[in-house]
Amino acid sequence: MGCNIVTDLSSVPRLRPAAVVINQAWCKKCGICIAFCNKGVLAFGEGNRVEVAQPENCVGCGLCENFCPDYAINLEVADQ
Amino acid sequence: MGCNIVTDLSSVPRLRPAAVVINQAWCKKCGICIAFCNKGVLAFGEGNRVEVAQPENCVGCGLCENFCPDYAINLEVADQ
Amino acid sequence: MSSEPRLVQGNEACAEGAIYAGMRFYAGYPITPSTEIAEILAKRLPQVGGKFIQMEDEIASMAAVVGASLTGVKSMTATSGPGFSLKQENIGYACMAEIPCVVVNVQRLGPSTGVATAPAQGDVMQARWGTHGDHPIIVLTPSSVKETFELTVRAFNLAEKFRVPVILLMDEVVGHMREKVILPEPGELPVYDRLKPNCSREDYYPYRADWDKAPPMAFFGEGYRYHVTGLFHDESGFATEKPEVIDLQLRRLHNKIYRHLDEIITYHSEQTEDAELVVISYGGTARAVSRAVKLARQEGRKVGIFRPQTLWPFPEEAVAELAGAGKKLLVAEMNYGQLLLEVQRVAAGRCAVTGCLQTNGELTQPETILNKIREVYEHAPGN
Amino acid sequence: MSSEPRLVQGNEACAEGAIYAGMRFYAGYPITPSTEIAEILAKRLPQVGGKFIQMEDEIASMAAVVGASLTGVKSMTATSGPGFSLKQENIGYACMAEIPCVVVNVQRLGPSTGVATAPAQGDVMQARWGTHGDHPIIVLTPSSVKETFELTVRAFNLAEKFRVPVILLMDEVVGHMREKVILPEPGELPVYDRLKPNCSREDYYPYRADWDKAPPMAFFGEGYRYHVTGLFHDESGFATEKPEVIDLQLRRLHNKIYRHLDEIITYHSEQTEDAELVVISYGGTARAVSRAVKLARQEGRKVGIFRPQTLWPFPEEAVAELAGAGKKLLVAEMNYGQLLLEVQRVAAGRCAVTGCLQTNGELTQPETILNKIREVYEHAPGN
Amino acid sequence: MLPEIEQYFRLEKLPHMWCPGCGNGIVLHCLVKAIDKLCLDQDRTVMVSGIGCAARASGYLDFDTLHTTHGRALAFATGVKFAKPELNVFVLTGDGDCTAIGGNHFIHAARRNINLTTIVFNNNIYGMTGGQYSPMTPNACRATTSPYGNLERPFNLAELAIAAGATFVGRATTYHTKQLTDLIIEGYKNNGFSLIEVVTHCPTSFGRHNKMGSPADMLKWQRDHGVTAMRYENLSPEERSDKFIVGVLHRCEAPEYTAEYQKLQEKFRGR
Amino acid sequence: MLPEIEQYFRLEKLPHMWCPGCGNGIVLHCLVKAIDKLCLDQDRTVMVSGIGCAARASGYLDFDTLHTTHGRALAFATGVKFAKPELNVFVLTGDGDCTAIGGNHFIHAARRNINLTTIVFNNNIYGMTGGQYSPMTPNACRATTSPYGNLERPFNLAELAIAAGATFVGRATTYHTKQLTDLIIEGYKNNGFSLIEVVTHCPTSFGRHNKMGSPADMLKWQRDHGVTAMRYENLSPEERSDKFIVGVLHRCEAPEYTAEYQKLQEKFRGR
Amino acid sequence: MPGTWEVRLSGSGGQGLILAGIILAEAAIIDGQNVVQTQSYGPAARGGASKAEVIISQEEIDYPKVDRPDIFLGLNQESVLKYMDGCKDNALAIVDAGLVNHIPPSKARVYALPITETARKQVGRELVANVVALGALSALSGIVSRESVTTALLRRVPKGTEDMNRKALELGFNLGEQALAGAQAGHN
Amino acid sequence: MPGTWEVRLSGSGGQGLILAGIILAEAAIIDGQNVVQTQSYGPAARGGASKAEVIISQEEIDYPKVDRPDIFLGLNQESVLKYMDGCKDNALAIVDAGLVNHIPPSKARVYALPITETARKQVGRELVANVVALGALSALSGIVSRESVTTALLRRVPKGTEDMNRKALELGFNLGEQALAGAQAGHN
Ligand SMILES: Cc1ncc(C[n+]2csc(CCOP(=O)(O)OP(=O)(O)O)c2C)c(N)n1
Ligand SMILES: Cc1ncc(C[n+]2csc(CCOP(=O)(O)OP(=O)(O)O)c2C)c(N)n1
Ligand code: SF4
Ligand code: SF4
Ligand code: SF4
Ligand code: SF4
Ligand code: SF4
Ligand code: SF4
Ligand SMILES: [Mg+2]
Ligand SMILES: [Mg+2]
């Protein structure tokens, strides 16, 4: 509910997220997330599946989620 | 034939014309010529006919001809 | 509105009838001979809490009417031939998305710009077939100022009930004519309001209805959050290309009209029982026919008049009955023979069908019709 | 163009046929399933000294085509249902001002946006009646890629000869289908060029012609200095409201078509002589009918096929003859029954007329038609 | 009328059908004066108009003339010009014709920079249909469809044309006849899309509803409210508020559409 | 996608029908983020779209949504908004939808200053029909109907909107997501006609014909060519030639149409 | 039809004949009659000849156009030439004496009255010639009562012009009555 | 119909099946056959299932759509589920071994071949999977001659890609021939 949010989450520097989750059912393998991740976290795998190849490198910048045209990436923030 | 005319007649100060001629068949009695003649040459007559009431006052300025929306006024220049 | 008799113009009766029916949104673009409808409504609508907007063209007018109707407001536009041609695409949209609205076409002489002020009835077939693709449509046509008021109210009732655009097909004669009329008091004529869903948002399927019915219609802004499109769609309103769904939905669009002809079709029939010849006519022409039929009766000819108020769907059954009874049929209209084609089809060879057609920009004179009556009465083959 | 067999798409055949006929001006606005015509012509026209322009919408496209045609260039536009609806006003203008041009409508499933890629034949009546006012119109419809080429050439010939807009009514099946064809060599098909006046400017009346003829047409820019309008006009081309002149001019517009049906109407008729049942069909559907008729014959049923290439004016005489011979008629089309209405009218009760109609966005299958053939063959009343 | 310009009129069609005092006749007068000065070949000049009082102009002029459908003059003219670029094509259109129903064709013709000289007869009203407000009717003015005063704002047509891509834009009035004639000449000479907006007066459908007085009064109003750019510059904001500029408003260079296409044809012909 | 904005989507309709890498999904993402920040009542917000790839957007959003005819979204939206001014009305339209067939409705909605927030998905092409050039296709670019390169000049949409009367105009790209979200917020807040032009990428129909590379390459192109007004100011003319400004381009005050009408109604109601 | 009057009012576009027709029709309604009013426009209803027609009857009125006028009014030359044709034998025809010079052959009783002149000289506004004509027509024909036409007129005219219009109507009545009493303009 | 082959090629929007259909049809023309080619598009022909159909015959071809394929090609899972239905008994069905996991019940002779994999690994471009498939299909069916399909292919592909395409086609032929020689993928 946006109405309860005072500042936009995406504008607050995040904690290191627990996980970058790819929704394979929605992903169309366009490669945008891979191209824009500065940390080389994501990569094409078998059959062009997008895979979280280097999860440990992720800094939670959110670029991948932001640019994914198919809402197929979620940054799941760890419970605090 | 415009193509033989070097300067536009209407832009040259004219000689005093021989006559202001009203084409009554085309005149719609709108009164524009009368309102714009600075010399009081023209006036409404019987049945709102436009008449050249004071021909002697005409200075051949051409305003009446210029503004008549019905091409009903001709300044007939005397043969030189 | 008082019960005093007043002198009222046909176009004015249309405007006032619309207000009576509850119309509170008008979008239009001026065109002779319909313009008075817009001019009157520009003045009247703010007075009754309604909205008037002059759009940039007829296409936009039709679009705005559909948009407004979705918010739950009874909506209308009025035009004439050239504008009616332009509205066709969005009339088709209203058919497909099942948006109630009324489109008035005060016919003038065409094709093209034609003669803006001349009477004609050349848009009868266009009113039926003007937009692309198969679509059902209801077309009403009045013959007098009073009937213009009444049929305008009916047009709204049918539009709202069946969720369709209804065409009120007037002509210059009726639109510009003034007659003495007593306009109905509120309550005197039935006024139908749109059926709304009474279910929850979750249970609402905007295009779910019995095979021959129009579904209830939620208003935009009331929480149903549904989707409307001109693409073929399933009951949920979302696009589909499934043949069986397309078939079902298109069939329902037709059935909701063609299975309710009794509610939709009205006509006026006079002296047809004993008639050997029946003149079929409508709109302004029917006024000349009335006179001609009186004169023919005075001459001892058994002539009747059949005047559809609903042009489409065509009163097929009633006309088939006349044809079946072997009466000669004479179709009088101000065009090259449009309704004539439908009458010929329905008559199916069972009786002589002749046209009394005029397309010169003048209202047909009673004498012209009388002469034709005499000719057909005497010479057309009986059965 | 070589005499080698090639794989050609229907839309491509239309584009190439137009070039063959001498078309050198195309204005259009893209829409599925007609877009290939524009795309091919965008490439081809500059190569053959022609002009291609993509206008801002379909209305402007139709307008530009008329403007171009007045300069003496054979002109064309192509579209599908929604765009065809938008073009109607200016098609009426072309009828009224007698401007030759060809309008291609590659039909898709409607009404409204419908399904852009699905085959349908829902614009048959619209092609006849889509613009306001009474107007004659010629509508041709092809069934194969080769015929698309040929009828496109014919469309231009008829347009130029009769000074009318001609509608080439294609459907998605034929437009998108590719077939092996040998395109005609130059000179193989007749190509008709516009009749120009051979009189002086003073003697030229742009709308003076025999009662059933189209007048010769001067090109803009060649010194005839004449006036063209969509208003009713007299022979000089200037507006008139005189009933007798209106009547005369409108009658000529109709006569120049309806008095030359022999030149205009073509159809394909096969195995009808001994047939007890004739299937009437056109466009893509006729391809399924061909198969179904073959199968029916294999079953020993005497079935024929009648396929109008000219839809409007309708081949009334030929169909009346079939009806008069008491053959059962089955009309197969991908709509709710449009040509069916005309067949019923023409049959005038002399034979059983049934429809095999499909509107689900798929090409009717031969089996569907065969089943209907069996049913009608067995059960419809004979005479 | 000067005898030397009579040749451009279809004299037998005169007097024209416009109301007494209507400004349209003055616009036409200036147009033929301009054509005369330009020495255009009468046989190779086309007048295209839409529908409306102004659009009737084409019928009075002795050229190839094309009176089209409402709002579509520019689209028809595009066809004429593109098919035969050697013709001179003028478009005569009303404010409603051009900016209401025809607005899209207007911005696209400007964008394409096709060589059409477009004269908009701006009488701030739909004259032909009896006085409904147009997109050029000033705010608060009365018309038959704005009985309580017009709620909308009018277009600034010149700015719209410039934004859309016109390469020549000028404005005059029926009072400023000399300027109008010159603007038409300049507009014609521009190799591209030219707009000449003429503020003209409709005494019947606009003047009457808005108490503008006689036709002569309306001309005087134009005289008093239309000013040159130079004069405008020197006016105070208050003085400016009811004034408008008369003269050339915009001029720039851009490739002309039909010429570009001809280049293309030359390049690919026979390929 | 942030879980808090899922509520604005019709999740069961996802994945959407757009091609892999198509920018439209990013625009929609920004739109719902803006709506979330604005705390709009989902039940009183309407999305109106025309026909085209972009116009399919309405189907994915959980509001009252109206997918209309090609080019007419603004005219339908005018009906919705004028009939029920208390609704928030957004218009989602493609460059072809809005500026080709729909150009007239666009300039008139702007002129009326009716309170519609219009988001133009400018991918410089007719995507849906397979890649014909649009009025926003840059000169010389290739499309299926400009096989030899586009001869026409594109509109400067922002300038056109300003000239027509829009009271808020902004531009962003699918790369500039933060700015886009903010522009939508600002556009919504403007009480009048707001245009937000989004430069988006169509890898299938535009990119492929014009060798623009992968979807990611097209996003990078946007990053490198869209600059803030401030940066633009400091660029040399040569540097400017292939750049465009991202941000608020215009803002002004003018009476809003539906509000003006409401005043009229209040004044004359019952008369 | 018995008890039916067919009235044709004609003149140039700006002479207010449609308004006159409406007032006449409304007067007849006040008198309890049935009524239909129609008009025909020129290309744009400017100048030239235009007409308004009124049919007044006790019966229901079917055909709304006037075929053969019982009463004809012609306020300019063009309209008289164009529309006077077809008058019934012995019909009442009123033409403007100042603006009409030629009358086509007809069996009507023709009155040439100084209608426009009266409006201009005695009311000071040519604009009200239509009202003067209406007065004369009512007086000469008796088709509507004096009170009804006065009431109908005052309902229709703009506020502030009532006196001027009433005066014009009175002058018209007088013109009509004088004509009735005096010489008839002769058959021709 | 005697001597008539009905061929249905299916896969996702971007897999180039229409082009494959066209090449197949043109090859058949070179072989002197009659041919009709059609296709069906999805909402916007992107992703999902799309199909191209070719009918090849010595006779004239009337109905242009494939009702019951003699030859079926399925390059993705969705299209196999949607379009494989209706194959004739003993029809030839070729599916992509890497992208298709489930096959609907059918009496066709089904071959699961590594088409896309071959294109990716051996040609280096997945894009040419359609050409590989075409090769395999020709070899397995003999419906068109090897020369004709090669000629038709080379006429259609962009300049500069001839070698790559020729290679893909060869690989396809080989796949087909191996399959013919080797094990059939079994009925199910
Ligand atoms: C499609 C269509 N819509 C409406 C009309 C009616 N119509 C004719 S002229 C006109 C407006 C004319 O206004 P403008 O262009 O300003 O010309 P003016 O008469 O003022 O010179 C209208 C609305 C028409 N002829 N066609
Ligand atoms: C009246 C009409 N004309 C043409 C079309 C075909 N058509 C559908 S979408 C479209 C263009 C879409 O371009 P744009 O608006 O830029 O949207 P995009 O697909 O690029 O997002 C066209 C021409 C149509 N549906 N209706
Ligand atoms: S950006 Fe989204 S759709 Fe594209 S590859 Fe990454 S996860 Fe998949
Ligand atoms: S959040 Fe940033 S670092 Fe982590 S995967 Fe996404 S783009 Fe890479
Ligand atoms: S300006 Fe012309 S039309 Fe008007 S009154 Fe004078 S002469 Fe007559
Ligand atoms: S020429 Fe000048 S002075 Fe002479 S009448 Fe005309 S306006 Fe008056
Ligand atoms: S109505 Fe206005 S614009 Fe039309 S002719 Fe009369 S004065 Fe001129
Ligand atoms: S064609 Fe272009 S705009 Fe349309 S969905 Fe594909 S990438 Fe997006
Ligand atoms: Mg105007
Ligand atoms: Mg686009």
UniProtKB/TrEMBL annotation, chains A, B:
Gene3D superfamilies: 3.30.70.20. The keyword Transmembrane does not apply. Keywords: 4Fe-4S, Iron, Iron-sulfur, Metal-binding. One of its GO terms (molecular function) is 4 iron, 4 sulfur cluster binding. Residues 18-47, 48-78 form the 4Fe-4S ferredoxin-type domain. It comes from the Bacteria. Transmembrane segments: none annotated. It holds the Pfam family Fer4_21. The keyword Chaperone does not apply. InterPro entries: 4Fe4S_Fe-S-bd, 4Fe4S_Fe_S_CS, Fe-S_Ferredoxin. This is 2-oxoglutarate ferredoxin oxidoreductase subunit delta. It comes from Desulforamulus putei DSM 12395.
UniProtKB/TrEMBL annotation, chains C, D:
One of its GO terms (molecular function) is oxidoreductase activity. InterPro entries: 2-oxoacid_oxidoreductase (IPR052368), PFOR_II (IPR033412), Pyrv_Fd/Flavodoxin_OxRdtase_N (IPR002880), THDP-binding (IPR029061), Transketo_C/PFOR_II (IPR009014). The keyword Oxidoreductase applies. SUPFAM superfamilies: Thiamin diphosphate-binding fold (THDP-binding) (SSF52518), TK C-terminal domain-like (SSF52922). Transmembrane segments: none annotated. Keywords: Oxidoreductase. Residues 16-247 form the Pyruvate flavodoxin/ferredoxin oxidoreductase pyrimidine binding domain. It comes from the Bacteria. Residues 275-368 form the Pyruvate:ferredoxin oxidoreductase core domain. The keyword rRNA-binding does not apply. This is 2-oxoglutarate ferredoxin oxidoreductase subunit alpha. It comes from Desulforamulus putei DSM 12395.
TrEMBL record, chains E, F:
One of its GO terms (biological process) is cellular respiration. One of its GO terms (molecular function) is oxidoreductase activity, acting on the aldehyde or oxo group of donors, iron-sulfur protein as acceptor. Pfam families: TPP_enzyme_C (PF02775). Keywords: Oxidoreductase. Coiled coil: none annotated. InterPro entries: 2-oxoacid:Fd_oxidoreductase, THDP-binding, TPP_enzyme_TPP-bd. Residues 53-198 form the Thiamine pyrophosphate enzyme TPP-binding domain. This is 2-oxoglutarate ferredoxin oxidoreductase subunit beta. It comes from Desulforamulus putei DSM 12395.
TrEMBL record, chains G, H:
Keywords: Oxidoreductase. Pfam families: POR. Residues 13-173 form the Pyruvate/ketoisovalerate oxidoreductase catalytic domain. The lineage of its organism: Bacteria, Bacillati, Bacillota, Clostridia, Eubacteriales. InterPro entries: 2-oxoglutarate_synth_KorC, Pyrv/ketoisovalerate_OxRed_cat, Pyrv_flavodox_OxRed_cen. PANTHER family: 2-OXOGLUTARATE SYNTHASE SUBUNIT KORC. GO terms for molecular function: oxidoreductase activity, acting on the aldehyde or oxo group of donors. It comes from Desulforamulus putei DSM 12395. SUPFAM superfamilies: Pyruvate-ferredoxin oxidoreductase, PFOR, domain III. This is 2-oxoglutarate ferredoxin oxidoreductase subunit gamma. The keyword Oxidoreductase applies. Gene3D superfamilies: Pyruvate-ferredoxin oxidoreductase, PFOR, domain III. It comes from the Bacteria.
